[in-house]
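User: For my dataset I need records formatted as: sequence, then structure tokens, nothing else. Please produce one.
Assistant:
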Amino acid sequence: MSQSFDHSYDVVVVGTGGAGFATALAAVDEGLSVLMLESTEKWGGSTAMSGGGMWLPNNPLMQRAQVGDSREEALTYLEASVGDAGPSTSTPHKEAFVDSIEDFVTTAEKHGMVFTRATDYPDYYPELPGGKIGRGIEVKPFNSKKLGDLYSSMRIMMALPIKTDDVWLLGRAWSTPSGFVRGAQLVLRTLGGAVAGQRLTGIGAGLIASFGHAVLVNNEVPMWVSSPAEELIVEGDRVVGVRFSKDGRWVTVGSRRGVMLAGGGFDHNTDWRQKYHGISGNPSGNPGNLGGPIAMAQDVGAQVSLMDDAWWGTSIAPVQGGDPTFLVGERSLPYSIIVDAEGNRFANEAESYVDLGHHMLSHDAGGAFWFILDSRHAKRYLRSFALDPRANKAMKEQGILVKADTLAELGEVLGLDATTFRATIERFNGFARSGRDQDFSKGDSAYDRYYGDPTVHPNPCLGPIEKGPFLAYRLVVGDLGTKGGVLTDPDGRALREDGSVIEGLYAAGNTSASVMGNTYPGPGSTIGPATVFGMRAGRHMARHPR
């Protein structure tokens, strides 16, 4: 490098989510020096706020358990579920993802990370060719006390030692024997950790804490928070460093091998959301996701793709000054339906959240949607969105939560067409009694039934809406982040509009265009590819010096 920098490292990583940590882990595994930059005061990104699962087909844990998966089946399933949604979903990208899973898992294990399988969690389209159950993995609950002072600056939403594979059973903790047993196991796990002097942390917080321990503690990688990257430094046609703000002054850092942009998408950038999505959005990801890394890449000629899509879903509308509540398994449980502003069903309530989000957008992006619950739903199931009495009160006051003794009264308060709503309920109740949803096939897929109630027959996802009092929650189109960004090659290198490589510049995670295209093949389809392509990029930097 001919330029002068305040600091120099082999690799500079912008962002501290799963993609950034996987890049750093690969780099230190290759003996390279790394600096990690975080724009906000809390590190961990959206990964720390997530369920922490990683969808990794044919992974080493499956191979060791001899449960039966293969490269061919994984690729067959990706072609069937993702298809061709643009250049980021090409066959070479899919192959690079599947072929690099083993390297990510074994390297992470080598550096002290301990994984476990979510054995019961199906792919989101398990009936498609190549579909399976049990491809997701996660970290075992991690003792976050090992982070020392780093814990205080980690982004965290839930400090309990909960696992991804706990959630589906905890939802029915007091209505089924298996749910009760899993709830008891969680309590014992929490108490056991406390007695042992540990602070066990699970799901996304556990994953990012485990990453932090492997990279920041064990490998002593420096990380600077409150250090937003502002500009890429270019020498000739190569990116050689980053200019960022730290403690009110400008700092430059050189990168001898490469700069990784892994600072999330643009879900909290309202201007970009209007430009690319036509809505302001109701994001559930890291508030630091403002699109800065994508804009930096565009400034040096990077091509972008899939900017019109996101990891959509449905959320309970936020109270004033609050955040939306993203719904996952609650939609699959019996005694509930989702209707539009007229009182019509329009989709399978239990389908993949991305699919339901797309259906809401295509049906009526700005319209009103309501999650209607029979009293049995409220009594039988643990509803995470209804645990806080203060939030419940605010939702009632702001019309987000409505309660009524009869369905006719409920429909009148919600402004639904009385005839339409009554016909919808009667038709749905008939399906619940017969066990077959003839309109939208709710409960037909193993994915739907995963979150259902097996004690309800003949369909664990269908229960008639007939016992009051009835509840209605106003729903909005929500998301877990945006999925469009910098277009890269299979090694994570940023590409120009003409397809040429921008030397020294890499992108992964939600800063990049997703290999998953417009869909969501399985649990952890955001973090799985983010970590795998982060690992590939770190390897490429090490093995292809300037």
